[in-house]
Amino acid sequence: MRIGKEGKPFRIYKFRSMYPDSEGKGKWNVGDKDDRITRVGHFLRKSKLDELPQLINVFKGEMSFVGPRPELKHYVDMYTDSEKPILDLKPGITDWASITNFEQFKFFTDATDPDMYYLKCVRPLKLRLQLYYRYNHNFVTDMYCIMFTIYKVIFHSQKLPKKIQKIVDEYKKYAKRGCLIMTSEELAWKIRRHGVEMTHLSGGGHIGSILSVADIIAVLYIDILKYDSNIPNWDERDRIILSKGHAGASIYAALAENHFFPIDELKTHYANGSRLSGHVSHYLPGIDFSTGSLGHGLSAGIGMAYAAKKDDKEHRVFVIMGDGECDEGSVWEAALFANHFHLDNLISVIDYNHMQSLDFCENTLKLENLANKWEAFGWNVISINGNNHNELKRAFKFAQTKYSHKPTMIIAHTIKGYGIPFMENDILWHYRFPHDGWEYDCAVNELHKNKPQGVYDPYTPNGIENPILPDKNADIYRDHTVTATWHPTKTNRI
Ligand SMILES: Cc1ncc(C[n+]2csc(CCOP(=O)(O)OP(=O)(O)O)c2C)c(N)n1
Ligand SMILES: [Mg+2]
Q: What is the pLDDT of residues 294-325, one digit of tens each?
């Protein structure tokens, strides 16, 4: 059985290539030395003729000639929100992923655990290509795909269409440096998990701010930014500035997960003498600009974008700011400059969580209507849900339109503390770190409730057994803003 359009299961027709009763014995995935395959089966699989009976599925209306290859149910169950649109299409006999092939058999032959290889090495690229197909296919590309499939089957050619080759090359670059591709959702989860551990161990940091921006950073590092961790200062890399530098742990985690430095070093966050200072430090490979004093990142990014234009360079500059940070006058001076010099190579994001350090932004200094303000300053403005990966990816893709002659501002509506319900929208967690006891135990277990399958938690692989729970006096689910009526620091002025 396979999963078809809109998640409906159907029986797929295939020529048998295995001995009877082989299914379910051992692995789901099959390498070409697997002794469950018959001799004729080897021939059928190599020549791809085992797929031919799927013409019956096509005539029954369950499949198309071209479309994402149908998956087994347990793999479809693992689809993240941004992967689910693959199910909008009828599955097909061939697609970009199947013609890419990328030496699947070789992978499986060498693999001691073919299932793990499928999960970590084959599936990520396959899903990328299927999503690419989902959003870019039309009649002409389908015809091209069919012809290419026939060509490859006859000539066993490794040649690929240019666009597909580009995606595969990107994948191989990752594979070469030992990094198995992650989805942005997986990286976001890891950023959150590292963030909890780093702030817990160091007794410092801004966990609410880290959780708020984790999705933005993850989408940038997985789907958008051009970089090579082997050459951190590569001249053509995209530049990125986390202007809300107090959330530095988020970008440190993304860099470590992408092999800029060892993951173990994350444990030194905030420690004396560590390169991972509490606020973002350029002593680390992959960091373009130190931040922490709010209000400077946009100006620095604009300098970089302006220089890139002057030097005729193709790279882009990304700046992530906080909404509270927009209280700084320097932000608006920079806004004028970027418009005046038509910096369409500059993409900025505001992590619009409506909170700053002690209160809601609107109680501190009114920002509304934020989108109108940036528009009035001449920027291209996109408002989205900044904790939704699909919306983030679409916004960044849209912002990539060159020659618009305008800088782009993505107003990303987020939730401070996102991912750990008792921290969400509670200002307490701007400065407070998860302490020993229920705070740490519950934070970890809340994250584990939404852990994507296949992601490994290096600190508490299975979450925390027998966690300490908050007692009835715990300071939880209360309004901790300075304007809250009960608050001991409430002043008459406010
Ligand atoms: C120039 C400057 N003033 C004050 C601070 C202290 N400070 C640290 S975080 C913060 C609030 C930032 O809020 P926001 O930009 O909304 O970021 P969030 O934590 O909500 O993501 C402040 C005022 C600072 N780091 N820099
Ligand atoms: Mg904020």
A: 999 999 999 999 999 999 998 999 999 999 99
Q: Which of 207, 209, 290, 294 for mutating ligand 1's site (highest number of atoms within 8 Å of CB)?
A: 294
pLDDT value of position 238: 93
Mean pLDDT of the 402-421 span:
93
CATH code given to domain 184-413:
3.40.50.970
Measure the CA–CA gap between 26 and 361, rounded to whole angstroms.
57
- Residue 325 CA to ligand 1 center (angstroms) comes to 6
Q: What is the DSSP string of 402-436?
A: TT--S-EEEEEE--TTTTSGGGTT-THHHH----T
CA of 326 to the centre of ligand 2 (A): 9
Domain boundaries, the chain: 2-176, 184-413
Which tokens hold the place of 382? 């996109």
Q: Does the N-terminal peptide bond of residue 369 adopt cis geometry, omega within 30 degrees of 0?
A: yes
User: Counting beta carbons within 10 angstroms of the beta carbon of residue 486, is it exposed (0 to 12), middle (13 to 18) or buried (19 or more)?
Assistant: exposed
Residue 22's pLDDT band, with cuts at 50, 70 and 90, is low
Strand residues in 324-427 grouped as ranges (E): 346-352, 380-385, 408-413
Asked if 245 contacts 449 with a C-beta cutoff of 8 angstroms, the reply is no
pLDDT digits (tens, 9 = 90+) for 75-123: 888 787 778 899 999 999 888 888 776 455 455 555 556 666 676 667 7
Whole-number Å distance, alpha carbon 411 to ligand 1 midpoint, is: 17
Name the DSSP letter for residue 315.
Answer: -
pLDDT value, residue 341: 97
Contacts 24+ apart (CB under 8 A), 188-192: 188/214, 188/215, 188/217, 188/218, 188/219, 188/389, 189/447, 189/450, 189/451, 189/452, 189/455, 190/253, 190/257, 190/455, 191/217, 191/218, 191/250, 191/253, 191/254, 191/257, 192/419, 192/420, 192/447
Burial of 155 (0-12, 13-18, 19+ CB in 10 A): exposed
- Give CA–CA dist 382/401, Å, rounded: 13
Residue among 297, 247, 298 at smallest CA distance from 276:
247
Q: Which atom of ligand 1 is nearest to the CA of 361?
A: 16
**CA-293 nearest atom, ligand 1:** 26
* Least distant ligand from the CA of 209: 1
Residue-level pLDDT at 470: 95
Residues lining ligand 1, Cβ inside 6 A:
206, 209, 212, 244, 246, 292-295, 322-325, 351, 353, 355-357, 416, 430
Q: Report DSSP state, residue 122.
A: I
Percent of the chain, pLDDT > 90?
Answer: 56
- Give the mean pLDDT of 411-426: 97
Residue in the structure block whose two tokens are 């958008």: 224
Helix or strand or coil: residue 283? coil
